[in-house]
Amino acid sequence: MLCGIDLGSRSVKIVLMADRQIVTKKVLETVDFYRNFGRRLNGEMAVDFAALGLGASEAVVATGYGRNTLAIAGATVIPELKAHALGAVWQTGLTDFTLLDLGGQDSKVIKVRRGKMVDFQTNDKCAASTGRYLENMAAVLGISLEELSRHSANPVELSATCAIFGESELIGRIVEGFTVPELAAGVNYTIFKRVRPMLAALTRAGETVVFTGGVAIGEALPRIIEQEVSVKVVVPARPQLNGAIGCAVHALSLVAEQKQGSR
């Protein structure tokens, strides 16, 4: 059994892989994961895999926002960009594409050629193009994230570039009498407008964009990106687990190297 862990800012994703198949997956709130399943041990965090209902693993590979805060005992740590590129290649079978990952607190665009990362751009300084921004805007509108992610038609213009000022602007638009679908579409378009420069830098019309992260689960943003950038958008089966899957894929190569070295 091989274990991949993505220590995200909003959630921790865990994947167990056996015989190159995903056999177990878990998504936990980040605070709950650290509070209930981790304990500090010699400067590292020992994860209680038994309490998580997970058996022993031959190899554990971790990535994500939390990897720099406290290392997981016994785990190999890899960069987020590498984990996400590996996960996207494994999930889609594609080798030439541009990866867009929108997470809880950052956004990444990675250019992949022949299965390898060749260029990238990230935005980890502003929450305005992330899942947390969408959570806040859905709360302002009084709707679920699922409902918010459905709308792309007749978007209201929202020009604020800051997540905090964006909430104030949205409230102003509500007062002006726009409908919830128009407001939700406007929110989704603001996400697109913030990642568009990164996409424009690393992809061209007609190419394929693989879209991952929790934000990719909704239908509006893939539709907007396809229409506005003239690309084909592929959302893999498990977009939110992509980083954890990439870690498990890296664990596969580690075990293979160890077996090769022992011969």
What does this structure look like?
This is Acyl-CoA dehydratase activase. It comes from Anaeroselena agilis. Pfam families: BcrAD_BadFG. Residues 4-251 form the ATPase BadF/BadG/BcrA/BcrD type domain. This protein has helices at residues 30-37, 80-92, 131-141, 145-148, 163-175, 180-202, 220-229, 242-262; strands spanning 2-7, 11-18, 21-29, 38-41, 44-47, 59-63, 76-77, 97-102, 107-113, 116-123, 208-212, 232-234. α2 crosses α8 (242-262), α3 packs antiparallel against α6 and α6 (180-202) packs across α7. It is of the alpha/beta class and 263 residues long. The chain contains eight helices and twelve strands. The longest helix has 23 residues, at 180-202. The protein starts with a strand and ends with a helix. The strands form three sheets. Strands 3-2-1-6-7 form a five-stranded mixed β-sheet. Strands 10-9-8-11-12 form a five-stranded mixed β-sheet, with helices on both faces.
What keywords describe this structure?
12 strands, alpha/beta, 8 helices, five-stranded mixed beta sheet, 263 residues, globular
Mean pLDDT score, rounded? Answer: 91
Radius of gyration: 19 Å
**Helical residue percent?**
25-40%
Class from helix and strand fractions: alpha/beta
| Major sheet | 5 strands, mixed
Low-confidence stretches: none
How do the helices and strands follow one another from N- to C-terminus? EEEHEEEEHEEEHHHHEHEH
N→C terminal distance: 21 Å
Q: Count the E strands.
A: 12
Largest sheet strand order:
3-2-1-6-7
Number of helical stretches of at least 4 residues: 8
Shape: globular
What is the strand content? 25-35%
Keywords: Iron, Iron-sulfur, Metal-binding
Protein name: Acyl-CoA dehydratase activase
Organism: Anaeroselena agilis
Domain ATPase BadF/BadG/BcrA/BcrD type: 4-251
